[in-house]
What we know:
With about 140 residues, the protein is an all-alpha fold. The protein contains seven helices and two strands; from the N terminus they run H-H-H-H-E-E-H-H-H. It has helices at about 1-15, 25-45, 45-55, 65-75, 85-95, 100-110, 115-130; strands at about 80, 85. A two-stranded antiparallel sheet has the order 1-2. It starts with a helix and ends in a 6-residue tail after the last helix. The model is unreliable at about 1-20 (pLDDT under 50).
Amino acid sequence: MKCAVALVVLVICTIANGQIPINLSEQQKINALQYSAECFEKEHSTTEAATALIKGQFDGLDKNAQCFANCFLEKAGFISNGVPQPEVLSQKLGPNVGQDKLDAIMAKCNSLKGSDNCETAFVLYQCYYKEHATLA
Length: 136
């Protein structure tokens, strides 16, 4: 439980310090914190892995971190059963990233697949992160 509290504090600090480059409403911040805490517990991830994901440090992350990403993205509605949801992505990211840029990112990233839903979510998250459209 201490780790879950640490993760929630980490996410709050990251959002508050503007390290997540999107404008989130108060409700979206609350949802992100709730999803993070739930997925952290469910997937038995570590605060180090969560920190690495937030910072875009993807090398060496284990299956639990990949499944944490899958759980979070599923709860946020960005993916469903390993399939990106373009309507949700457009609705939630379009205003922050710009729809034209988002369309280009979706064309580049949405066809990526992993060996399972966790790996697929992880490679999708990496692609969006590298293209500057954070899925948080």
